[in-house]
Amino acid sequence: MVAEARGYRTVEFLEHSEMDFAAADRLHRIGTVRLEPVAEDDELQSAAQRRLAAFRSRRTSRRPYDSRLVGAELLTSASSIAAAQGYEFRSTTDARIVSLLVQINQKTLFSDLRNDAVYAEIMHWLRFSKDEAAALADGLSAETMIMPGPVLRFAMRHRGLWSFPVIGGLIRAIYLRTMRGVRQLGWLEGPFDEPADYLEAGRTFMRIWLFFSEKGVCLHPFGTVITNPVSHAEFVRAAGISETAGRMAWMLFRFGYSATPPAAHRRPATSTLLSPLPEDTSIQEPVRE
Ligand SMILES: Cc1cc2nc3c(=O)[nH]c(=O)nc-3n(C[C@H](O)[C@H](O)[C@H](O)COP(=O)(O)O)c2cc1C
User: Fold this and answer.
1) pTM score, two decimals?
2) Cα separation, 64 vs 194, whole angstroms
């Protein structure tokens, strides 16, 4: 997605295997990517430079949005980006549906945390202080969730309290305050049946996210509404989506305009590469089956 800005095109040899969540090394090989130098082209270069800048500046915004709607022209471009990959981008400004789905997203968060496996996974990634977030550079920080670290730590360590009317109500109110000004939701529909689909879906989502970033539009995925079966069914019903064999609504997000969100620390690119080769080493053509 950003290699062009450095003067390369990518040649991919993808393996398309299902993830093995029990794998001892906790690694999943996606494939081999080779970078090939390409001839300079001024027009392509400036588009590539814009995309690289968006790649670097893109941040999830969990802040309140400012109620401005993203205009029809940008929505049409986002639809074209999705269509070019065989997917459909749809959105709504229907206040009833937006409010319902924001509530469903909040309820999903609460109900997922009652599930021990999900709770353990989230606790593993949460970072409650800025120092911890910076040192590990791999998690979900209180700062990016617009929550004071000690409050988040207390709330997460005492999830039983979330079921009490007063404390549960307070946590719900704090969370929903971050959703003020949300007037528009978007989602992506299309093939999502096998590993090749998952990769193309991810690529499509990232293209749309980078395009929005370039245009100053913020986004916050509601991924848990997709993965929680009860919430997913409610979302599909509310938005009038028909999911047929192999096709589904696989991503839902709020989008709009907000103040600059806090940065999530990132691992270096090399942390997702296996045995990176020294610059002057050539590799053998991977064999395609
Ligand atoms: C497939 C997918 C699903 C996600 N679902 C959620 C979600 O349900 N709630 C949330 O707060 N963030 C969600 N995120 C946002 C990521 O957690 C976010 O990208 C991550 O915290 C890194 O921050 P950054 O986007 O600012 O780099 C999701 C991201 C992806 C790619």
Assistant:
1) 0.92
2) 35
